[in-house]
Amino acid sequence: MSAAEQVQLSNFSNIFSLDGKVAVVTGGSRGLGLHAASGLLQAGCSKVYITSRKKDACDEAVAALNALPSKRPGAQAISVPADSSRMEDLDRLVAEIGKTTDHVDILFANAGATWGEKFDTHPEKMFSKVMDLNVKSIFYTIQKLAPLLEAKATLEDPSRVIVTASVAGIGIGTVGENATPSYSASKAAAIHLAKNLAVELGPRHILTNAIAPGFFPSKMASGLIELKGGLKQLQEYSPNGRLGKPEDIAGLVVFLSSRASSHLNGAVIATDGGAVLKGRL
Question: What is the CATH number of the domain that holds 182?
Fold first, then answer.
């Protein structure tokens, strides 16, 4: 083995480290966003900004994150409540973040909503709300944070945008009495948006990828899990015999934020144990 190869191999020890990185997590007060924020802090981030619509929820999440014993000394989670569907709130969010950092390395665009109702009565108001939050707000969150994401990004150390989509945007989502056409369409759109932004922002040294979670027990998913037969039935349906756990989402987000994924751009990674491959969700 040559000396050059030995040097390259010796540098793999910190391939998943996020030491000193600055992250923003939208929809970060609970569920997948909170799990991801926990992973980012424990992987070495110095600052993780948590934002969601409710101030109390953000403050509670930040308090729990800052109590983690395994985060690096001096690292902190910071609460910045904002409604991602409102442009004025997004402007305020960026301004507040800019008061305590001159750059952002990682954006986990995770805010989202769903609605279930049969085709014949599915309300226009809710269809629009889901599409606005799950697609339009993701685009404008990324657009407005782009200057901070670009500030310190380089070819060798690019910034990262991770978009939360869903396996419902890959396969067919829920139909019938609790159909989710707006959710499924919005998540398919989020996947394609991530691919477009990968090409648009890549030359600015900002990599954009999407994740497509399956069922993770959470407040938003609990109702649909019960409608589909409950935890046990869904676990048995999944090829790996279980649903998602907090470390599954945290590990994937840490990977996509780290040096280990620096040649992934425009990728879509399903994290569902293979359930989507069986033809229904």
Answer: 3.40.50.720
